[in-house]
Amino acid sequence: MSLQNHRAVIVGGTSGIGLATAKLFLSQGTQVIVASRSQERVDAAVKEIGTAQGYALDFQNESQMQQFFETIGDFDHLVVTAAGDATSHGLFGTLGIDVARAEFDSKFWGQYATVKAALPFIRESGSITLTSGAFAARPVKGASTVVALNSALEGLVRALAMDLAPIRVNAVSPGVVDTPVFSGMDAESRVVMFQKAAQTLLLQHVAKPEEIAEAYVYLAKNTYTTGSVLQVEGGAILSGI
Ligand SMILES: NC(=O)c1ccc[n+]([C@@H]2O[C@H](COP(=O)([O-])OP(=O)(O)OC[C@H]3O[C@@H](n4cnc5c(N)ncnc54)[C@H](OP(=O)(O)O)[C@@H]3O)[C@@H](O)[C@H]2O)c1
């Protein structure tokens, strides 16, 4: 399928994987709308991308999401890459349940609320692509919340593929990607962390956001894929280190 003159909405499209995905959709001749919470980030992304439209909103807020989709009207492809920072690292039982709930409230319920609000406006020939993460398929110690919420998202994607057909519903599951989500770390620790991560991967490097963006464009284009999780993780699952 050509994406020329299609309309794509990318919630979380102002940074990292979402921003790279917005640029790649634009290169296909698609009209792109990006959204995230911070007006500053939205303005910066629109300036950087050039021809996209941008909106400030919180994907956890159902009424804001309804208003947003009513404003923009019918479109073809929904991509959701938004998520708050993961703060729940620690062996099970060492963190308060409120920390785990907050992370579900953002990444799981935010994606859920976005799809629910978007649904009346997505064309039947269109697609929905959500974002999980490689920990769902390859858990590591101390990441029970992230493992559980990405697994829940992948289950949701399979269920939505059943309920919403012929709209196609899939997920991209990234491995470690060099994005601003790690900007809270000092530069030196980030380099060390990426080097360590790279050594555990078959492909020996941490992903650039552009390497993940291709998966979202593929899932929007391919008319015969639904209910699937596309792993883009440099061989993390097979390497098993
Ligand atoms: N980077 C990795 O290594 C990695 C690995 C596995 C999975 N992932 C997943 O990939 C996705 C994208 O991650 P990324 O690394 O590209 O992150 P990022 O660079 O931090 O981008 C996250 C985006 O989400 C937006 N956002 C956050 N909370 C929001 C909210 N409540 N409402 C609306 N927008 C919100 C942010 O903008 P505002 O601040 O303006 O809201 C930003 O545009 C996430 O689901 C993440 O869990 C990433």
TrEMBL record:
InterPro entries from the UniProt entry: NAD(P)-bd_dom_sf, SDR_DHRS6-like, SDR_fam
Keyword Oxidoreductase tagged: yes
Superkingdom of the source species: Bacteria
Keywords on record: Oxidoreductase
Pfam families: adh_short_C2
Keyword Acetylation: no
SUPFAM superfamilies for this protein: NAD(P)-binding Rossmann-fold domains
Family per similarity comment: Belongs to the short-chain dehydrogenases/reductases (SDR) family.
PANTHER family (UniProt xref): DIHYDROANTICAPSIN 7-DEHYDROGENASE (PTHR43477:SF1)
UniProt-recorded name of the protein: SDR family oxidoreductase
Organism: Paenibacillus zeirhizosphaerae
